[in-house]
């Protein structure tokens, strides 16, 4: 399919959810009793995912992040990664995982040509980890990080959602952890979800807290955009990898967003905080052509709201849950 112009308007980053299932129940992401699991026939097949990624890559998408749910619970995930990695135009292929199964899969993912991983880890305390994940074992996540580093899934980025009253006292311990392991930290301002309403922001501002504690360790130098996404990165003395800060609330980035989102059921969502979606699964199974599917995607992007605050958008959003969208 030849494309003479970019019909996606510069959107080049696809967050691809491959399953609605997760082996944790993190408090800010999912209700305590989980969400109703979808029948297998409602989930996109590997062949359908491959076709959609190929269509989007030919239209300008060059970066793909595999998400969930928890992507490593999807059977045959390494085979899917290998298929996506072989698609012409996909230059950066990564995965976000909770890390519980990463030690088991790190080698096969690397052999499948996954480039790098983001591991979600909101505390270094085993007790607090059990609490926020409702039963998770932090040792398995740490083993997964070590395995990813050993297999060369670099850079390993550790995502920390900063939650007031829970883990703001762990910023410096996490920075020291980064120095010890050689990983890149990314501190993320807690965003409003269905499970943390009414939402309250940090009084001091998470970005300021992180900056203060980075400076207590040494010189801090802002970097140009090194990796895709909304984070601002900094070089800190003594750390081999940059530190990222995502301030979605205090410094909104909607105007510069280049992300596309595809849910495990084939719903294309041009915005994380929008109710609007387009059903690409029906288009795929209805034998629509590649050009017709691309027109659906391009049309959906006309409904992207680049203005307003995240809080305002969240107040208007009704479905689905954050875990079902893919974050």
Short descriptors:
single chain, 327 residues, alpha/beta
Secondary-structure blueprint of this entry?
Elements: E1 13-17, H1 46-58, E2 63-67, H2 77-85, E3 92-97, H3 102-111, E4 116-120, H4 126-133, H5 138-151, E5 156-162, H6 171-181, E6 184-189, H7 206-215, E7 220-222, E8 232-236, E9 243-246, E10 259-262, E11 267-269, E12 278-279, H8 280-285, H9 290-301, H10 310-316, H11 322-325
Parallel strand pairs: 1-2, 1-10, 2-3, 3-4, 4-5, 5-6, 6-9
Antiparallel strand pairs: 7-8, 8-9, 10-11, 11-12
Helix pairs in contact: 2-3, 3-5
Q: Could you please describe the fold and organization of this structure?
A:
It is a single chain. With 327 residues, the chain is an alpha/beta fold. It has a single domain (13-325), classed as Aldolase class I (TIM Barrel, Alpha-Beta Barrel). Helix content is 32%, strand content 17%. It contains eleven helices and twelve strands. It has helices spanning 46-58, 77-85, 102-111, 126-133, 138-151, 171-181, 206-215, 280-285, 290-301, 310-316, 322-325; strands at 13-17, 63-67, 92-97, 116-120, 156-162, 184-189, 220-222, 232-236, 243-246, 259-262, 267-269, 278-279. Strands 7-8-9-6-5-4-3-2-1-10-11-12 form a twelve-stranded mixed β-sheet. Helix 2 (77-85) packs parallel to helix 3 and helix 3 (102-111) runs parallel beside helix 5. It is globular, with a radius of gyration of 19 Å. The two termini are 30 Å apart. The mean pLDDT is 86.
